[in-house]
What does this fold into?
Amino acid sequence: QKEVEQDPGPLSVPEGAIVSLNCTYSNSAFQYFMWYRQYSRKGPELLMYTYSSGNKEDGRFTAQVDKSSKYISLFIRDSQPSDSATYLCAMSPMDSSYKLIFGSGTRLLVRP
Amino acid sequence: GAVVSQHPSWVICKSGTSVKIECRSLDFQATTMFWYRQFPKQSLMLMATSNEGSKATYEQGVEKDKFLINHASLTLSTLTVTSAHPEDSSFYICSARDRAEKLFFGSGTQLSVL
It folds into this structure.
């Protein structure tokens, strides 16, 4: 079993839809959670990071962590075609970005 | 935000040759840099952690004699793939950690070994 599981997709939605991206994990020591966006043949770009359980909102993006269920989510409101990319969840057992464990990524396609 | 520059963005080489990839932090000092490899439709796999002025720490299964890492300054780390073979063809990405411990990624290098 992988430490971090993420549905590879692809997930196809119409423009303006609310997108929900999810990851599950098995290591209860994870306490630092991040979401990255990666365009094809580019390096990942940090979108959101959260500590422990709870919600964090930044513009159209909301990151949610449920430690009791070992489940994290990224919601994208009013999705745009430019949001089409692969979204990677990542987490660390320390309160740091050191040595992140990545999910396999979910490919998102937002149709105009 | 902080910028990490990675060069080259793509390289094609013959089997048996060596290839060097550079990773630079442009506007901050990075005491620690990381090197990842990513195969198509797969996630990033950490290869090694590079600390300025000391030897790199390699992840299990990564050959340190094949993937030479040098972190000679606070803004530059290099990865040299020695005696490259077709199975080394992959997307290589570096990242650098700033003093606030945020991680920033380079744009990646696509290596194709013929």
Remarks:
- The CA atoms of residues 39 and 85 of chain A lie 5 Å apart.
- The longest strand of chain A covers residues 85-92.
